[in-house]
């Protein structure tokens, strides 16, 4: 279990395990980056095989993340099709007013007549070339959409009325620790405030974050907070927020088919042109050129890449 974003919790695994057993649906809890923080329950042989492949596994986790972000917009379950054509749903996990992850469930097939959002481009199913994977896919049962919808509503009730109330959670982000010199220069009474700020930024960088508002949250003046933050992190507040956004932007450009405008909006930029400017300053390439470059490298992988398992 990856504890990079959540504290290890028996409660998380118990709820995921019990719900998977009760519904016979696959369940996993992930952090806001799509990384698993619970064990994998009732995962289909098809999905287990896909996730063992580096490229397909990356796309699986990006589908998890994109589905979770869609659910977080309305704080309601989001039912969607993943990049491999299976149907999943996501429940946002909000603790103390902070979005910290998602509970993901599904790995089933429903009738194609049901129109669902697709988290990633799924028109090219390269895994179909693998006989064993194709067989695994066909063995996944087709279930009724209403049953899946009821399961999503039930899991939302469990998350909202039990998990959130019982779990005293601390979100832990794997930051590069401040150097000993920087930490020694920070008054000890402000160390916990800076940690709180970093956790807050990690959960809210897709929103309109203003230095003045964050400073007020930890009861510091904007001027003093600005100096303290730069001393603590070695980088200014706005630069740090944009750094987090640009890292997320790269992942979205690589692993989703969202337009540049949608990605900019999802990352808190009111103007697409400003998003492009910040991205180019960070990576010396435009977002569109970056996406095309990555797409070209994916279509022409270097020799030696791990291939999907074959018969």
What layout of secondary structure does this protein have?
Blueprint: H1 10-23, E1 26-31, H2 45-52, H3 54-74, E2 78-81, E3 87-95, E4 98-108, H4 131-138, H5 145-166, H6 180-185, H7 188-204, H8 211-217, H9 222-233, H10 237-255, H11 260-266, H12 272-283, H13 287-299
Antiparallel strand pairs: 1-4, 2-3, 3-4
Helix pairs in contact: 1-5, 2-3, 2-4, 10-13
Give the gist of this structure:
The protein is of the alpha+beta class.
Give a written overview of the molecule.
- By secondary structure, the protein is an alpha+beta fold.
- The two termini are 30 Å apart.
- 53% of the residues lie in helices and 10% in strands.
- The chain is globular, with a radius of gyration of 21 Å.
- The protein has a four-stranded antiparallel beta sheet with strand order 1-4-3-2, with helices on both faces.
- The chain contains 13 helices and four strands.
């Amino acid at each position: 279990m990856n504890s990079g974003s959540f504290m290890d919790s028996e409660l998380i695994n118990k709820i995921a395990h019990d719900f998977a057993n009760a519904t016979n649906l696959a369940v996993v809890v992930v952090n806001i980056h799509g990384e698993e923080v619970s064990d994998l329950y009732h995962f289909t042989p098809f999905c287990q095989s896909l996730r063992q492949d580096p490229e397909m596994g990356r796309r699986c986790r990006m589908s998890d993340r994109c589905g979770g972000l869609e659910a977080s917009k309305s704080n309601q379950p989001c039912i969607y099709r993943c990049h491999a054509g299976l149907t999943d749903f996501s429940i946002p996990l909000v603790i103390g007013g902070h979005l910290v992850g998602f509970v993901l469930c599904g790995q089933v097939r429903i009738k194609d007549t049901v129109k669902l959002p697709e988290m990633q481009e799924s028109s090219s199913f390269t895994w179909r070339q693998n006989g064993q994977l194709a067989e695994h896919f066909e063995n996944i049962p087709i279930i009724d959409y209403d049953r899946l919808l009821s399961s999503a509503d039930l899991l939302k009730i469990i998350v909202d009325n039990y998990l959130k109330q019982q779990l005293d959670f601390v979100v832990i982000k794997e930051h590069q620790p401040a150097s000993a010199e920087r930490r020694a220069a920070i008054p000890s009474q402000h160390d916990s405030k800076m940690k709180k700020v970093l956790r807050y930024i990690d959960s809210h960088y897709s929103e309109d974050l203003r230095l003045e508002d964050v400073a007020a949250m930890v009861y510091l003046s904007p001027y003093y907070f600005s100096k303290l933050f730069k001393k603590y992190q070695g980088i200014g507040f706005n630069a740090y927020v944009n750094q987090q956004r640009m890292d997320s932007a790269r992942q979205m450009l690589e692993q989703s088919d969202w337009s540049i405008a949608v990605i900019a909006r999802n990352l808190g930029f009111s103007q697409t042109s400003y998003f492009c400017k910040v991205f180019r300053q960070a990576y010396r390439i435009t977002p569109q050129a970056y996406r095309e470059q990555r797409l070209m490298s994916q279509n022409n992988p270097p020799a030696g890449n791990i291939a999907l398992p074959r018969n």
